[in-house]
Design goal:
The chain has 202 residues and is α/β, with parallel strands linked by helices. It has helices at 30-40, 55-68, 91-98, 101-107, 120-138, 149-160, and strands spanning 4-10, 48-51, 72-74, 142-147, 177-184, 190-199. Helix 5 (120-138) crosses helix 6 (149-160).
């Protein structure tokens, strides 16, 4: 079997700027659209597009798939982590209302879950399900995956075997691309390899 390649792309800036957005379905801002279009330019190395169902990902994915006549699959499990009571709040607002809880969350996501939020372990299992689905859908091909910062961090965690508690230490800028190749092994297993992170596609 051939190598399967995934380009993981975070969405651009949504309307409303930086905040704990999670499950909120805000669309991209004009700046966000420009960031994503600039990130891919006119290159077309992909055979298919996979996307989160949330608008800040799915609308760009649909535009790109249509422009390049590529098949598009929406993967529900690629949606961002739900932040519960923090949804819609900016960092300074969370700090004001919840004190040191935010620091605990950044330092060790396993030890603290925001009120009403999706526990990081459940999020990790959901992303693992998405990762298995994506490998089955894209086997032997080159896929663009349009998703979220939290999702990309967990995909990279699973590829590299990083500690779940430390995932927020990985920076994932708006419209950044990371490439993972999945190499088939003689014993029937697969070896995922991080080729680059937060770079540009060529």
């Amino acid at each position: 079997m051939s190598v399967t390649t995934f380009d993981l792309m975070r969405h651009g800036e949504p309307e409303g700027g930086r905040k704990f957005r999670g499950a909120l379905d805000d669309p991209l801002s004009a700046t966000g659209w420009a960031q994503m279009r600039a990130a891919v330019a006119d290159v077309r190395p992909w055979d298919l597009v996979l996307s989160s169902p949330l608008r800040r990902c799915a609308e760009f994915a649909a535009e790109l798939a249509e422009r390049h006549e590529l098949p598009l699959t929406v993967v529900p499990e690629l949606r961002e982590i739900g932040f519960g009571a923090w949804e819609g709040l900016r960092v300074r607002e969370v700090e004001a209302r919840y004190g040191e809880a935010l620091t605990r969350f950044w330092r060790d996501a396993e030890s603290y879950t925001p009120p009403g939020a999706e526990p990081i372990g459940e999020f990790d299992r959901r992303v693992a399900t998405a990762w298995a689905q994506m490998q089955a859908i894209a086997a032997g091909r080159h896929a663009l995956v349009v998703c979220h910062g939290g999702v990309i961090r967990l995909l990279l965690r699973q590829v590299l075997g990083l500690p779940l508690a430390r995932i927020w230490r990985v920076d994932v800028p708006y419209a950044a691309l990371s490439r993972v190749e999945v190499h088939p092994e003689p014993d029937g297993s697969a070896l995922p390899v991080l080729v680059f992170h937060a770079g540009r596609v060529a």
